[in-house]
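Researcher: Go.
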Amino acid sequence: MSTEFKAVTPQRAVEIMKAWAYHPWPITFDEGTRIYTSLGFVGDPKRPRYFTSDMSPTKPDSTFIVRDGHIEDCRMRLSNWLPEEEWTKSLQHSRSAYTSFVTHFSRLLGRPQSVIDTNAEYSTRWIANNMTTVRLGGNAAFIALTIESPKQTEYFLEELEAEANGEEIGADYF
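Model: Structure:
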């Protein structure tokens, strides 16, 4: 039996992205739970930071990371996850869905901060006006959306600035 690649519609991807990226930050654990339940997702009773998605309505496949009482980032699936034996057939479908998501996200978020495309793996990153990072990534197996807090975005921008100034990242730690 063959498994086929399936993804949410671009409109649904935008709805999910906006619910997280445009929510006032910082976001507490309880607020995060309210966000994902407002989207129709259900949390894992034992580990409520894990929650379902449209692609996995009964088994949690998405999560958020909490530090110091606030969400640092949220990672959500926008497609099903295909086994390796399906990747050759699924790559064109994954890329098509991903490209459509990028088009719709760019209408709201503007020009991307960065784009990586190795043909088999692709990633696009935007920084929204409220300083959240919106990152869309995909390959033949799946497409995922990550939203990073303004605090995490600040760290990212500091790293970019340090690299631009020729500084070695992480050099202070040793």
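Model: Residues 87-109 form the longest helix (23 residues).
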